Amino acid sequence: MMVIAMAILLLASLVVMLHYSRKAVKEEALQKAAQTLEGTVQRIDNILLSVEQASGNIYFNILPHLDDAEKRKRYMKQLIASNPYIVDCIIAFKTDSAYAKQPWFVNSMAAGMPGWQDPSASKIAKHPIITFCLPLPGADGQPIGVMAVDASLSLLSQIVLEAKPSANSYSTLLAGDGSFIVYPDSTKLYHQTVFTNNENADPSAQAAAKAMLSGETGYKRFTKNGADYYVFYKPFERAAVTGRSMQKLGWSAGIIYPEDDIFGDYNKLLYYVLIIAFVGLLLLFILCRALTHHQLKPLLLLTRSAQHIAKGHYDEKIPDTNRQDEIGRLQENFQQMQQSLSAKMGEMESLKATMEERSESLQAAYTRIKRADRMKTSFLHNMTIKMVGPANAISMDVNLLCNYSQEIGPQKADSLANDIQKNGEDIAELLSNLINMSDKDMGKEDDHD
């Protein structure tokens, strides 16, 4: 019961502690993800800004020499050499049929201002790229062509992914149409979107991708390849710089965290705490059991002694004890009770022997009395039988004298009187003997008492 109570208390404490610990870990992960995400956005924006500034510097140098192909080529090489993120640069005019229908060219001509093109609309190249386009104005102010500067997505991803917020996490940047700008798998940077070949993906992954492209700030939990992840996302916002085109890109930046990276240490701590709690409760149970057994050992001894005494062994010896607690005092009192009970039982045995001896004496006296009573009864019966004859004779003689006194003579009357006297004397003698016999028996009984 003590271990169960401790287990309930410990379990309640652990549930509360782990609940708030998990909440604190989650809040810390959210804060860390927000900081990392903000740093990632700034890092990407700085790279894009460097491409924009380098392109802008060359752009203004090229404008006066649009008709000079050699100078254009020299400026374009200078641009590529001046910025490590730029891998290619071309100048296309409306008259170039090879570019006139390209999405990046059409979009840039329609916008009429510098801007970034999504990877799906960028030029077809050997490496995944994203294109920064600057319209070339004509004499009438209308664009006559586009200066397209290509930035390497692989290099951009490599630089961004080097700043990993955790061992297995990574950053990503999605264009408005879902195409990848930054992603650790370089094969997905080739004009693929987050929905490409993803029809059989977990619904939670689809929901996370849609939430990320919705332009909101937040986080989602999703499952990928049987593992759980958290994605923290926010809209990609560029820093406001003088002279910079603040085009609405519709991009979204995100940090992908495996759940183990967030709660891995917490889960390990949980397992350690549960193991320690289980081992602690087991040791507590063993200790309580051993201590209780040790404390109750005298009670078990007293229980066996009580059972033995209950079977009639009143001389059962109770061992002495040195304990001064309640159990020790109980054992001493039980010992005194046993000794007192043994003495009382000895007295009762002695009294029983005396009672049995007296009972035997009384039984013998009772037997003698019954025998004497039977003898008396027999004696009285014999005496009564002996008195019946004389009494009947007396009765007959008296009847004769009363009824026939005139018919009988004096001599006969004298003979009847003598008979009556003689029979009367016989009866008197029998009664005298009976009285003497009774007096003797009474004297014997008085002597016996």
Commentary on this structure:
With about 450 residues, this protein is of the alpha+beta class. The chain has a five-stranded antiparallel beta sheet with strand order 6-5-9-8-7, with helices on both faces. A four-stranded antiparallel beta sheet has the order 1-4-3-2, sandwiched between helices. Strand 5 and strand 6 form a beta hairpin.
Query: What structural category characterises the helix and strand content?
Result: alpha+beta
The major sheet is characterized as:
5 strands, antiparallel
Mean of residue pLDDT values = 77
Strand order of the largest sheet: 6-5-9-8-7
Q: How many beta strands in the DSSP annotation?
A: 9
Proportion of residues in extended strands: 5-15%
Give the number of helices. Answer: 9
Termini, distance in Å? 72 Å
Basic shape: rod-shaped
Uncertain runs are none
Compute the gyration radius: what is it? 66 Å
Helical coverage, percent range? 55-70%
Order of helices and strands: HHEHHEEEHEEHEEEHHH
